[in-house]
User: Which sequence fits this backbone?
């Protein structure tokens, strides 16, 4: 059974994300599974409601590179990132705007890709942007780029610095003094500007180097700020520019800091949503595509668990039957240290599909694992599952009956 929120979310996603069910049956089995979400412990389902976004003293936004959510969340080579996701608000349905990298950075910063469709350098704009808005309203802004050699540097590349990942340098209405090397990032966090961006170099952002490299860099360089932020009305936003060119451009976005309600949030967001949130936070008029995006309010809202039928480890549920288009939601709690979680349907006739998610109810477009073959015999397996409550959606692509559902770990 789907909650009203879940049905609303599914409707909204249908207008923004291509689902495999929209493809012909023969074709959809050739498409790579692209949406993968969380492997972190959370047991709350977020309900939408009007909320006031708190105004933080400091917000630091860190942008990593070219990894889909399923390459990061649940990855043993990213323990620090996963600890942030567990400690904060993890958005399991977050998306980049486009490909390649540069237009995503520009879009997050200015509400528009400004017509950019490539990574070429240099670019030049004079449109309103987050920095010009903040400064104009009496707040402060800085961007800190690793390996950039000097304040106000406008070159396209040096060492492992790439201007394509530094959007503010392209805007003539952003002071050169706001364009800082990462060596200038203050150790006294009270001296941070109101909003700042941190851009790791091409290795430490995982563009050119393995996941554990970026994970270690984040912990070494920014964990002190994260811990300080929790008790000093400040926030870290960790996001990725784009995925690895999968269909849905599914990325990870994490909010961690003061006043955050830790949970997995399934609200559909993108870079324009993040920009709109920052603009609302500081009373700024939304610009470009941020004007039509919804601000993110979930981490400051309330939570309640979804209604789901409990499953017992290894105990079959027999006689499952659904009509086309309907679904049932189940849940199973997996203890720590298990090598795998297997969920399967057997027997019966028709087409029963399985979707699983940790901590929150999955949908047919947002899930950790899925099996959507064309029969009633389906299996999904999650290797080294994180401890927590997994929700299992059994969906009837075609009516089925006489099916047995079993979950075991």
Assistant:
């Amino acid at each position: 059974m789907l909650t009203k929120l879940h049905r609303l979310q599914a409707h909204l996603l249908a207008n923004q994300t291509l689902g495999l069910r929209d493809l012909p049956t023969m074709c959809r089995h050739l498409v790579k599974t692209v949406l993968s979400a969380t492997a972190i412990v959370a047991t709350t389902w977020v309900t939408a409601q009007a909320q006031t976004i708190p105004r933080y003293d400091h917000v630091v936004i860190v942008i990593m590179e070219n990894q889909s959510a399923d390459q990061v969340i649940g990855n043993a080579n990213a323990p620090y990132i996963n600890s942030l996701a567990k400690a904060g608000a993890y958005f399991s349905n977050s998306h980049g705007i486009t490909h390649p990298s540069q237009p995503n950075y520009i879009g997050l910063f200015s509400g528009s890709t400004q017509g950019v469709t490539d990574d070429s350098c240099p670019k030049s704009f004079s449109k309103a942007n987050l920095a010009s808005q903040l400064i104009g309203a009496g707040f402060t802004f800085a961007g800190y780029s690793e390996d950039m050699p000097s304040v106000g540097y406008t070159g396209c590349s040096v060492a492992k610095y790439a201007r394509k990942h530094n959007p503010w340098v392209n805007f003539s209405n952003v002071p050169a003094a706001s364009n800082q090397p990462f060596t200038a990032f203050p150790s006294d966090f009270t001296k941070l500007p109101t909003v700042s961006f941190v851009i790791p170099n091409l290795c430490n952002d995982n563009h050119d180097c393995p996941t554990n490299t970026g994970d270690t860099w984040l912990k070494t360089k920014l964990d002190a700020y994260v811990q300080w932020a929790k008790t000093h009305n400040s926030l870290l936003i960790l996001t990725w520019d784009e995925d690895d060119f999968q269909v849905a451009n599914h990325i990870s976005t994490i909010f961690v800091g003061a006043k955050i309600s830790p949970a997995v949030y399934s609200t559909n967001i993108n870079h324009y949503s993040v920009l709109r949130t920052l603009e609302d936070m500081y009373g700024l008029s939304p610009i470009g595509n941020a004007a039509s995006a919804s601000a993110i309010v979930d981490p400051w809202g309330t939570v309640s668990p979804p209604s789901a039928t409990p499953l017992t480890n290894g105990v079959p549920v027999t006689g499952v039957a659904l009509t086309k288009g309907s679904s049932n939601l189940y849940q199973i709690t997996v203890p720590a240290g298990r090598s795998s979680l297997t969920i399967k349907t057997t027997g019966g006739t028709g087409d029963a599909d399985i979707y699983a998610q940790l901590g929150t109810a999955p949908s047919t477009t947002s899930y950790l694992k899925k099996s959507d073959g064309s029969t009633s015999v389906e299996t999904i397996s999650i290797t080294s599952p994180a401890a927590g409550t997994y929700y299992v959606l059994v969906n009837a692509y075609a009516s089925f009956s006489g099916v047995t559902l079993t979950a075991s770990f």
In short: The chain has seven helices and 21 strands. The helical segments are 4-14, 25-28, 79-87, 101-110, 130-136, 211-229, 271-281.
